[in-house]
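Recall the central idea of this unit: under ordinary conditions, the amino acid sequence of a chain determines the structure it adopts. In this exercise we apply that idea directly, starting from the sequence alone.
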Amino acid sequence: MKLLYFQAGWCGVCHEKGPVVDELARAAALPLETVDWTTEEGQTKAIGLRINTVPTLALVDGERVRFRLVGKMITPETAAHLIGMYRPTNGGGGDG
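Accordingly, the structure predicted from this sequence is:
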């Protein structure tokens, strides 16, 4: 799983949420990819994942979006809760 952060240079909320997203990725020990909404590659990725606005933080597992947070919904508390819900646990009868 990884976090994708869709943002644009002209977006004030994107700049505001950028440090929050960086800290969330570090705390969750998940890879973070920042996707520039204004590039063709960014638009292609957004369309493929049905991302329609910036900023959007999405937890992606393969090609499946587990959750997405948009705009002011991107808070440490909300993201940590959702990451905890979708992240595999390390215990309880697994391989090790």
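The chain has a mean pLDDT of 89.
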